[in-house]
């Protein structure tokens, strides 16, 4: 496995989160563009890490290039994400660049965000994943369970306490 360096996300990471959001929504091939990510509210709210509202995340780099990122956002009921549960449950997103997939980086990042959420004394974290996305198996293996009544939307929850 390659060697990765890690750092916490900051509000200046919008370009990285734009790249990551584009990657997550295009997991099965090109469906959307960077212009879509920037212009469409259902995507653009994933590109802003705001520590002041409690958001947090971790970026992984290999040779100074982004290899992956995981982030947790507190979105509001007025601007919910696809995996929205409530305003006290952060929704996570996870992206690994194509050349770093299958090497364990995604699992490592997912475990790191679960650990950070636990350290922050959160009760749970949520996400949304399309049914055919291979990442769903990773989420299931790491303790996420489908939310009853929201299965069609791919909403999953990981209890922490």
Automatic annotation (TrEMBL):
<keyword id="KW-0808">Transferase</keyword>
<dbReference type="InterPro" id="IPR050680">
    <property type="entry name" value="YpeA/RimI_acetyltransf"/>
</dbReference>
<dbReference type="GO" id="GO:0016747">
    <property type="term" value="F:acyltransferase activity, transferring groups other than amino-acyl groups"/>
</dbReference>
<feature type="domain" description="N-acetyltransferase">
    <location>
        <begin position="4"/>
        <end position="161"/>
    </location>
</feature>
<dbReference type="InterPro" id="IPR016181">
    <property type="entry name" value="Acyl_CoA_acyltransferase"/>
</dbReference>
<protein>
    <recommendedName>
        <fullName>N-acetyltransferase domain-containing protein</fullName>
    </recommendedName>
</protein>
<keyword id="KW-0012">Acyltransferase</keyword>
<dbReference type="InterPro" id="IPR000182">
    <property type="entry name" value="GNAT_dom"/>
</dbReference>
<dbReference type="Pfam" id="PF00583">
    <property type="entry name" value="Acetyltransf_1"/>
</dbReference>
């Amino acid at each position: 496995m390659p060697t990765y360096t890690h750092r916490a996300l900051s509000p200046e990471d919008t370009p990285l989160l734009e790249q990551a959001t584009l990657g997550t929504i295009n997991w099965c091939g090109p469906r959307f563009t960077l212009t879509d990510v920037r212009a469409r509210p259902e995507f653009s709210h994933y590109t802003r890490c705001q520590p002041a509202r409690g958001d947090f995340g971790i970026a992984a780099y290999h040779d100074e290039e982004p290899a992956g990122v995981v982030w947790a956002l507190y979105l509001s009921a007025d601007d919910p994400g696809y995996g929205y549960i409530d305003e006290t449950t952060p929704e996570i997103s996870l992206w690994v660049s194509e050349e770093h997939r299958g090497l364990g980086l995604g699992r490592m990042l997912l475990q790191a965000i679960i650990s950070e959420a636990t350290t922050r004394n959160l009760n749970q974290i949520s996400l949304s994943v399309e049914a055919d996305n291979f990442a769903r198996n990773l989420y299931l293996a790491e303790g996420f369970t489908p939310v009853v009544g929201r299965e069609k939307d791919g909403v999953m929850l990981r209890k922490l306490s």
